Amino acid sequence: MTSLARHRDPIIAIATAPGRGAVGIVRISGPQLGPFIAALLGKALVPRQATYLPFNDGHGAPLDHGLALHFVAPQSYTGEDVLELQAHGGPVVLQLLVARCLELAQQLQPTGQPWLAGLRLAQAGEFTQRAFMNGKLDLAQAEAIADLIDASTEAAARGASQSLSGAFSREIAVLRERLIHLRMLVEATLDFPEEEIDFLQKADAVGQLQRLRQQLQQVQAQAQQGALLREGLKVVIAGQPNAGKSSLLNALAGAELAIVTPIAGTTRDKVQETIQIEGVPIHIVDTAGLRASDDEVERIGIQRAWGEIEQADVLLFLHDLSRASATEYVAAEADIASLVAEKLPQGVPVLHVWNKADAVPPQELPSIADGVVLSAKTGEGLQPLRMRLLELAGWQPAGSGVYLARQRHLQALHTVQEHLSLADEWLQQRALALDILAEELRLAQNALNQITGEFGSDDLLGVIFSQFCIGK
């Protein structure tokens, strides 16, 4: 990521996706673009008004014709002067426009605009980074822009839009304001140790802290839902060969993604598809059947299957009802279950799914308390399976008000929770250590500030904005 020390350099980039399209956009951001615009286009532009005109090369021959828009600082996306050239969406045309702008910047250097010599290609996320640094949006809103672009479901897109509009940031702001008020209350007593306990009791410091912790829990629950919308849930289907794993993947995806045959060991490598249930992305992974094998290729597939199992958020352990009474099959199931318990990370739920209900008389179907009985062939039982997956994910439908959150947000909120819990313990003690209490509250506020970027290291900002696309 570009050093923050260079954030005043004028930057340029193609702001539309690579490839051919009806329209392509070249974006420039920097201070005092007026002279550059006049030299490039042969006239000044009326701010915020689209103007149709030719985009000429250095010899006055048109490269293309299109729309030009000038957004004057601070009324722009970045908070700086911004020029957008909307041309036809051919990659060569856009590259020629970028090259012409860079060439012109060098030519204008001796004419009293030396800063234009620093015009350079923007790096990933640099336009949005400038918007953050110039106070156009906070860090959570900036991340929401990337999340909106990357959203894989309608619910995720709506959640990212909520975050971009400031819904998540406002929740954090309310927490911060109440925390600051409590900090002021505590620190105001530091100079009056003989009155500190009575003063804090009269101000209901204990009650304020309890209410703050309750509100934090509500924000954490909402953020957890938002993180689930953004990240989704990785569900790995595992079991013996011919249990119907590939058929189940196809049934859930509604498409013939995996090859299905009666031949054991047909699936040699993982097959993955992302579906959505109630707007939540579910990443389904079909794996090779688990068994001892002399086939080298199949052994590699089985080894990869165990690797996927170790990374699962939820494991679907698929059982074959048509072989449920076979002694050899039952013994193999027990061996696989033992290995799963050994390899699966602690806390990862296992959902037992009994497939091929269509091949067993109804009166012989088992009564499963914690599992799901279904038929991947007929679709019977698929909806209960979908609902169980949402239940295991911890999803609670909350209408259209869910905002997206990231794992770093959840970690920051968890850190706030830990410091507020310690603060509560110190506040409850008779021999009140006021300085330690104040420090725990300060650390809690620092963790909150990391979410919206009230302060943060250059390294943190670099990691965040480097994940953006060029031109955004």
- From the spread of the alpha carbons, the general shape counts as flat
What share of the residues lie within helices? 40-55%
The total count of strands amounts to 12
Order of helices and strands: EEHEEEHEHHHHHHEHEEHEHEEHHHH
Rg from alpha-carbon coordinates: 29 Å
Beta content: 15-25%
- Low-confidence segments: none
What's the N-to-C terminus distance?
14 Å
Q: Could you give the order of strands across the largest sheet?
A: 3-4-5-2-1-6
- State mean pLDDT (0 to 100 scale): 85
| Major β-sheet profile | 6 strands, mixed
Please identify the structural class as seen in this structure.
alpha/beta
Tally of alpha and pi helices: 15
Write out key terms for the chains shown.
single chain; 472 residues; alpha/beta; 6-stranded mixed sheet; flat
Concise overview:
This protein has helices at residues 34-41, 91-108, 126-133, 139-150, 154-164, 167-187, 196-202, 205-231, 245-253, 296-310, 327-343, 382-393, 407-428, 434-452, 458-465, and strands spanning 11-14, 21-30, 51-56, 62-71, 81-89, 120-121, 233-239, 271-277, 280-286, 314-320, 350-355, 372-373. It has 15 helices and 12 strands.
What topology does this entry show?
Blueprint: E1 11-14, E2 21-30, H1 34-41, E3 51-56, E4 62-71, E5 81-89, H2 91-108, E6 120-121, H3 126-133, H4 139-150, H5 154-164, H6 167-187, H7 196-202, H8 205-231, E7 233-239, H9 245-253, E8 271-277, E9 280-286, H10 296-310, E10 314-320, H11 327-343, E11 350-355, E12 372-373, H12 382-393, H13 407-428, H14 434-452, H15 458-465
Parallel strand pairs: 1-6, 7-9, 7-10, 10-11, 11-12
Antiparallel strand pairs: 1-2, 2-5, 3-4, 4-5, 8-9
Helix pairs in contact: 4-5, 6-8, 6-14, 8-13, 13-14
